[in-house]
Design brief:
The protein has 122 residues and is mainly α. The chain is built from six helices and three strands.
């Protein structure tokens, strides 16, 4: 079972309460599945900051008051500097993992750039 998580699962973002909580819950669900279903691969995957419609919404000026100017500016800079990942990068990793990931990944919260996933990025 592959769960798409987020960095927001590991730390709070103002105005993102339900999103942060739901992603943290997915991480825990993955961990519980790993214990309860030890023959199934189950992990949570952090795709990184990806160029999506969600990112466009985050950068919208209307969101400054919700998330705070500093965080809002951080997301704007990622876009302006070309630092957002193209969707095919984490998507490719997930596709490969869905076919070949072993039980050693079960119960983990894995970031797209984690060294453990190097073979899946090739």
């Amino acid at each position: 079972m592959l769960f798409v998580s987020s960095g927001a699962a590991a730390g709070p973002y103002a105005g993102w309460g339900p999103y942060c909580m739901s992603k943290a819950a997915l991480n825990m669900l993955s961990s519980v599945f790993a214990l309860e279903e030890p023959t199934l691969v189950s992990f949570a995957f952090r795709p990184g900051v990806v160029e999506t419609e969600m990112q466009a919404t985050i950068r919208n000026e209307r969101n400054v008051h919700e998330m705070g100017a500093e965080k809002h500016e951080q997301f704007k800079k990622l876009y302006e500097n070309g630092d957002l990942l193209k969707p095919h990068v984490p998507g490719g990793i997930l596709a490969k993992m869905s076919l070949t990931a072993g039980l050693e990944f079960s119960g983990q919260f894995l970031s797209w750039n984690d060294e453990k996933l190097a073979a899946f990025r090739e």
